[in-house]
Amino acid sequence: MPLHTIEPKRLYRQIADQVRALVEQGEFPRGARLPAERELAQQLGVSRPSVREALIALEVEGLVEVRMGSGIYVRDQAAAARAAPVTAEPPLETIRAREVIECELAARAALAMKAPQVRGLREAIALMQQEAAQGQMPTQGDRLFHVRIVEAAGNAVLTRVVTGLYDERHNPLFAQLGSHFENAASWQLAIAEHQAVVDAIAAHDADAARAAMSRHLTQSHDRFTASWQQPAAAPRGPRRKETTP
Description:
Blueprint: H1 11-24, H2 37-44, H3 48-60, E1 64-67, E2 71-74, H4 77-81, H5 91-112, H6 115-133, H7 139-151, H8 156-166, H9 172-181, H10 184-202, H11 206-224
Antiparallel strand pairs: 1-2
Helix pairs in contact: 1-3, 2-3, 3-9, 5-10, 5-11, 6-7, 6-10, 7-8, 10-11
């Protein structure tokens, strides 16, 4: 009998597979509403962010439908059965990983950046504002901002790591999560958070730069873990548009 490579499953994938099995066993028939995230997290002994990533994976696969302000509902299993399981990097873990790395990079940038480099950061924010004003998701300016901070460290390995983590936002899990929680208002908050990082770097205040980056990435994480029970008339976000990094 041939042996197959054993690959450890990401936590959200394990959760998604358990929920899928319950649906296939008839525990949750088509049209049924799944238990709330908090309840699922308690029953499974995992965090709510991990449950959210699992539910988003099942939504990408077509097994469930997220109805903002109502809950998570089971869809037609036939369509979901044809979909390949999502195995992308988990968005919320990715943000936490970025926080570990980028907070220290912001502090180092505050000590190393010269005036022309600080102007480069302000140009990146201006690009974000321009994209947002045009009704686009300002990810091109956002990416440029974070890349310019890591480039100040002069370390090619760190640059590769940070850009790789940032570009995970284009994976199907991250994109689907963003479709629920990214909008014009959330991006304006993010732009203001970026401005606070630049102000600290421009003042050569490493502690303030570290703290400002931490606030930005923590708040980014929190925006993606906000309650599903949002009002049905929540502000619509800018049109999502594929950007070229």
